[in-house]
Design goal:
It is built from 17 helices and four strands. It is mainly α. It has one domain: Proton glutamate symport protein (Orthogonal Bundle), CATH 1.10.3860. The termini are far apart. The chain binds aspartic acid.
């Protein structure tokens, strides 16, 4: 039964209500109506939106750092043979990179940030000056070689303070990896510490997200007050672009991987995973879906518990094909909206940062916003632009989460086949040349 008390509604319904009320409030007040002399409604909306964005930005460094360190440190846990770990990491990196490239291609073809040949900056009410943004973006880049330099900042604390997240992420991956190499007596307390910090940060994130309906109200109201409902059009085109790119990955790329690498029938995989996909779609959280994903992969796809138990929990945090793809499309959309010239160097930085940040994104609703903020900062685009992405985010989040979960499950099936397991998705014969399962 639907409750009449909005505070009892699920968060996404509250966010929808925030968007609708924000659009209405913005339309009614416009950008000049005043609550008191000199105090416009628009400035109040803006204040609320900024407060919410600040709270989100505050989470970036600790959330990404603890998530990556605890995730990567867990890689070397007991009973994880290096071979299985190596194949899994390789599979995750490769498929996430393909997902990002699919997004990159489609967003460049569709150009959702340009309407009738004009960048949609004004329509979306982006405040920053296009020329300054373009100068900042080109200043932040120096080609591909520069990207590698920024991966290793001379001072990690300064990099974190300046929002140079590429360096922070690389450092955390290395740090997590070498924690995983410690002797058990030393490794366990350190891993436990970072795991606890990560869980606490997730608590802070959930707390901040409780305010998303109000924050989104402010963000939407201030855009609509300034530009009316014209903002909706480019956002619809953007959403369709994201959905199309996700569909290509889900319906073309993944089946090809299943067919050619795992040598299984992709249709069976869709059938086996249907409950997990629907749960992912309705919860927008790959972490919340994990138990169901594991059940589907073990019981329906018939992957061994050894492979499932390693590949899926790891994948739920570090492998996010849909999220990586989305991050890339979103950042390029914002760059297009500012009319920024997307050189190869800029696009390369976006691809690398999307890949690295998708590792650090937590499997909870709207978690990609933290990563998108990181990438915008990394390429010199204004982080404030992220606000408009909230408008249609729920449906995009549902879809990318389903793609994330499907990517993990295909990983489990593929790795199981490469490990020589039989009976996976009804495949009686092992892959030719593969070694027998170590079970
Ligand atoms: N909601 C996504 C997940 O849980 C993460 C995101 O892209 O925001 O997989």
């Amino acid at each position: 039964m639907t409750s009449w008390n909005p505070l009892r509604w699920p968060l996404y319904a509250q966010i929808f209500a925030g968007i609708a009320l924000g659009a209405l409030a913005g339309l009614i007040s416009g950008d000049t109506a005043e609550l008191a002399p000199g105090l416009t409604f628009d400035s109040i909306y803006d204040y609320i939106g900024t407060l919410f964005l600040n709270a989100l930005k505050m989470l970036i460094v600790p959330l990404i750092a603890t998530s990556i360190i605890s995730g990567v440190a867990g890689l070397g846990g007991p009973g994880t043979p290096g071979r299985l770990g190596g194949k899994t990491v390789l599979y995750y990196m490769a498929t996430s990179t393909i997902a990002i490239l699919v997004g990159l291609t489609i967003v460049n073809l569709v150009q959702p940030g340009v309407l009738n040949g004009v960048p949609v900056k004004e329509l979306l009410d982006f405040q920053a000056n296009s020329n300054e943004v373009a100068a900042r973006v080109s200043g932040a880049q120096g080609g591909v070689a520069e990207v590698f330099l920024r991966m290793f900042p001379p001072n990690i604390v300064m990099a974190a303070a300046e929002g140079q997240m590429l360096g922070v992420i690389v450092f955390c991956i290395l740090f997590g990896y070498f924690i995983s190499r410690l002797a058990k007596a030393r490794r366990d307390p350190v891993t436990g510490f970072f795991q606890a910090c990560f869980e606490a940060m997730m608590g802070v994130t959930r707390f901040v997200m409780r305010f998303a309906p109000i924050g989104v109200f402010g963000l939407v109201a201030s855009v609509v007050a300034d530009v009316g409902l014209g903002a909706a059009r480019p956002l619809v085109v953007f959403s369709i672009t994201v959905l199309a790119a996700l569909a290509v990955h889900f319906l073309v790329v993944m089946p090809l991987v299943l067919f050619f690498v795992a040598r299984v029938n992709p249709l069976r995989q869709y059938r086996a995973m249907a409950p997990a996909l629907l749960t992912a779609f309705s919860t927008s959280s790959s972490s919340a879906t994990l138990p169901i994903t594991m059940r589907c992969v073990e019981d329906s796809a018939r992957v061994s518990s050894r492979t499932t138990g390693f590949v899926l929990p790891l994948g739920a945090t570090v492998n996010m094909d849909g999220t990586a793809l989305y991050e890339c499309v979103a950042v390029i959309f914002i760059a297009q909206a500012f009319g920024v010239d997307l050189t190869f160097g800029v696009q390369f930085t976006i691809v690398v940062t999307a890949l690295l940040t998708s590792i650090g994104v937590a499997g909870v609703p709207a978690a990609s916003f933290v990563a998108i903020a990181v990438i915008l900062g990394a390429v010199g685009l204004p982080v404030e632009a992220i606000g408009v992405l909230f408008v249609f985010d729920r449906i995009l989040d549902m879809s990318r989460t389903a793609v994330n979960v499907f990517g993990d499950s295909c990983g489990a099936v593929t790795i199981a086949r490469l490990e020589g397991e039989t009976g996976v998705l009804g495949q009686a014969s092992p892959l030719r040349g593969s070694s027998a399962s170590a079970d």
